[in-house]
Specification:
This is DNA-directed RNA polymerase subunit beta. By secondary structure, the chain is mainly α. It has two helices and no strands.
Length: 65
């Protein structure tokens, strides 16, 4: 005799979220620029120092010092 399956005995999985209906396109980051800027920061080279100086003159706090 086999066990009968009823609706309460069937395990339900997690609900799936579909991203197929997203209408607005997502902006792709420039990963190469991000990597080279991070490397400039790590080395503390002249390009990084010039960028920090320009940001400080402009009053921007977006560039870490």
């Amino acid at each position: 005799m086999s066990a009968s399956r009823n609706a309460s005995a069937v395990p339900t999985g997690p609900r799936r979220v579909s991203f197929a209906r997203i209408n607005e396109p997502l902006e792709v980051p420039d990963l190469l620029a991000l990597q080279t800027e991070s490397f400039d920061w790590l080395l503390g080279n002249e390009r990084w120092k010039a960028r920090v100086e320009a940001a400080q003159k402009a009053g921007s706090k977006s560039v870490p010092t």
